[in-house]
């Protein structure tokens, strides 16, 4: 257990810092076990704070203090105090002063990967949110922005590359085989954006010429054996730089932009000013080692971190409660970038699918929190889908309401008004208001109110009056600390379809003329009525087009009406959603029969006929067609049930897949062969689209469990030209009774054992297999020589895949899956609390299940919460989950 209850930090208690740091000069003498850090700070009293307090409090954790000087004078022990949480200087002068501090740290012992640590012999840093205090004593908060200068000294043979933020201004050699490099960042930044890297690295170099004609040097640093996997990352960076210039008028501001890929990293990437540090997963790609999805993710994450240069670095957040100011906005920007580079429809659906499956569950659980949280114990626990993905949806709604031109005006004003500042979510919204002359007072509730709103739509058509009245009711379930919710301002995009599938022009009562296409209705009340006039015949309502707001839509629809929308809706998202809703209805019906003791073997003909029509139609966008052929995930369906039944859900979904595979076998095989015949291994959009639909068909064909289907999967596995095709075939083999399963798994491992990211896929495939016996396989894999709890990617690929992507086995009725996860979290807590807390998320939804599973999950949560030496990260998640 914790020795004392951790302190809760509240947004309402925010106070500006008493001191500001105008400049910090850092001097590192690198050593694996005893790095010496000397910091020279220029400080002054903050004029925004009225009262003078001569006590200076600096944050610091796991530091060995050596000395402190104030204005060049060595401080006596009586003049300062050192504790586990920092350094206090008892009396500093009221005028500006200089403080020099020397301390030591042990990077090799830093398995939490926060601050300065070692990754495969390479020094690297992670300072967001509170890692800098593990490097040296400082006022570690985002609203303290300073000019950084960094000098690094290290052994030249072991660490020939020495990197930090900004521009390289000097370097030299020293005695005893050591050398030094000095870096200067001309832009003020908070300390969470500080970065340092030192190691034996290879570099891929390129150039980018900005719209104004400036030449920017681009460098990607990786371990030497990975240099041939950086081309896609470099091209993605250049595309992102050009896109940001064209879409938002933002040019890069330094002369050099660097990316470093490291194998030990808690997150995806970090936007440190001028020196981004990335998880290797989001940099390294080659057609034979990375899937098409990997290529897309790399481009998106490269873009995300680059876009932070303006939305996160040049303008940062005042405090960590405002995290979505930079993350939600930048998620929106990277989504728009990715949509411009591929199929906009597919990108939008993928983003919504993640939100509805994962973030909606977060909103419905014990850890539900607003986009701008009110409080936290450990801020690491709030790097969530709510802050990122829902935060991005909040930004998107603003664009929906003011239009693309109005949104650009608001962004331009935001950059003009707040460049170089640490600001709040309210400041961003105010820029949208001021630039467009609108009032978003009610809309601000999206930042303050937790939970997923529900919109209920009830249409009433009057044939005689030729009117359609649309009754809209909004509500939001209670969430922790917010039992009563206020109505939100919800942009509801919709259209009306005639019986022949054509779009009807829309005219609201009181309007002079009808307008074609999609309309955005502004829902502001708990109950509201919209009346459309001159509607010639009973229409079919296409609601929430483009997923115009992150809400659950409740609307009574027959299977026939959903099948009609699935065939005719002109909005890509709404068409896909109609198919998902139809399939969900069918699944829920099967689940009911299974739980009643029946053994259903057929499914609703509306779903089968809808898939048959879809397979028969030529597809302009095969990737979109593949999405239309997908079924809702087991997690998504579980969230719709009052009591989730993992076994019944899995069985119902498998029945649908096997019926579709059997009835439409010829169609799936025809489409598979059509796209397999043109396989070239290329990376162009057309080739990626063909692989996506082809492998979707292969997944259905594998459901047949015949010798022919087994042979087809094995043939693709052995002849694959790309990792996309090889891993798709291996997944089909692993998730079936294919007699070649063991041979193929061994062959894949032997082929790729030197490629860590590929072996991550090998672990994940086995951990996510829904067949019986998977838990025993996963337990055995934890003893595999290539599995290491100290490597976050490997933990996510095995422990994460089992607990988050294998619901039927993880939620085994005997609680064995929960016990296994509990054991791993106990071990991880002592190694990497941040990763441990993220793994714990799979147990937080215990209230959604039957009493037996609830009790088993709660036992693990109680055990973990009471663990001796439990970290703040893990403690907060466990305790809040049990509350």
In terms of topology, how is this protein built?
Elements: E1 9-10, E2 19-29, E3 35-45, E4 56-59, E5 64-70, E6 73-74, E7 80-83, E8 86-89, E9 97-105, E10 115-119, E11 122-126, E12 145-155, E13 161-164, E14 167-173, E15 178-190, E16 196-199, E17 202-209, E18 215-222, H1 231-248, E19 256-262, E20 269-270, E21 275-279, H2 292-307, E22 316-317, H3 323-341, H4 344-363, E23 375-376, H5 385-418, E24 422-423, H6 425-436, H7 445-448, E25 454-462, E26 467-475, E27 490-497, E28 519-523, E29 527-532, E30 540-543, E31 552-554, H8 559-568, H9 572-595, H10 605-616, H11 622-628, H12 634-639, H13 646-663, H14 665-676, H15 685-702, H16 707-719, H17 723-734, H18 741-752, H19 756-767, H20 774-781, H21 792-805, H22 807-810, H23 816-831, H24 833-840, H25 851-865, H26 872-882
Parallel strand pairs: 2-12, 18-19, 19-21, 22-24, 25-31
Antiparallel strand pairs: 1-23, 2-3, 3-9, 4-8, 5-6, 5-9, 7-8, 10-11, 11-16, 12-15, 13-16, 14-15, 17-18, 20-21, 25-26, 26-29, 27-28, 27-30
Helix pairs in contact: 1-2, 2-3, 3-4, 3-5, 4-5, 5-6, 8-9, 8-10, 9-13, 11-15, 14-15, 15-17, 16-17, 18-19, 19-21, 23-24, 23-25, 24-26, 25-26
Keywords: Aminopeptidase, Hydrolase, Metal-binding, Metalloprotease, Protease, Zinc
Cofactor: Zn(2+)
Protein name: Aminopeptidase N
